Amino acid sequence: MTGRHLTTALTMVVLVGLLVLGATWGWQALFEEVPGSGEAAEPTPSCTTEVIRAGDKVSTDQVTVSVFNGGTRNGLADQTLDALTRRGFRPGQVGNAPEDLDVRRVQVWSTIENDPRARLVARQFGKKTRVRFSDEDLGPGIDVLVGNDFRKLDKAPRAVTVTQRRELCLPVESTAPVD
Fold first, then answer.
1. I need a labelling partner for 124 at 20 to 30 A (CA). Which of 74, 82, 151, 159 fits?
2. Cα–Cα distance, 81 to 93 (Å, whole number)
3. What pLDDT, on a 0 to 100 scale, did the predictor assign at position 80?
4. If we measure between CA atoms, which residue out of 66, 57, 115 comes closest to residue 89?
5. What is the pLDDT of residue 41?
6. Could you give the CA distance from residue 138 to residue 116 in angstroms, rounded to a whole number?
7. Nearest Cα to 179, choosing from 165, 161, 153, 154?
8. Is 0.70 surpassed by the pTM of this model?
9. Average pLDDT score over residue span 92-111
10. Where do runs of H (alpha helix) occur along 32-134?
11. 2 or 71, which is more confident?
């Protein structure tokens, strides 16, 4: 055997050894338990139910808003949620509205009738914007559906007064009513 044959044989042995080592490590990593998967993670609530008395105020930082695009303009839901979060609202979910809906400008939905949080959100889109009661909850908090005719938010208050005693789910970090 010449020196060249010896070098080639040694190189092949080293390469096969590396291949076996890599395959063994990969096999173990593939079937290794995922870190933290043995412990059940406790879900953290996004809101707590609080009693709000008539005369108390609900402010933007106590309201989570989810925005859904009901039109054909790309990024409309993201832009709208950004504008609302700049006003102090808490961001919820962004997505597309169900296809069977006809949304021209804006719709504000709540699963609670006479919801002051929804009234506060609706005011951001103008005094004529009404809140629709819906059994369908599209995302966390108050649902806003925007269409192609929506352009920008209106001047609006940052808080509304609660007209009747309510139990509302307010974000965990901010549960006290604003005075």
1. 74
2. 9
3. 92
4. 66
5. 53
6. 18
7. 161
8. no
9. 90
10. 76-86, 116-123
11. 71
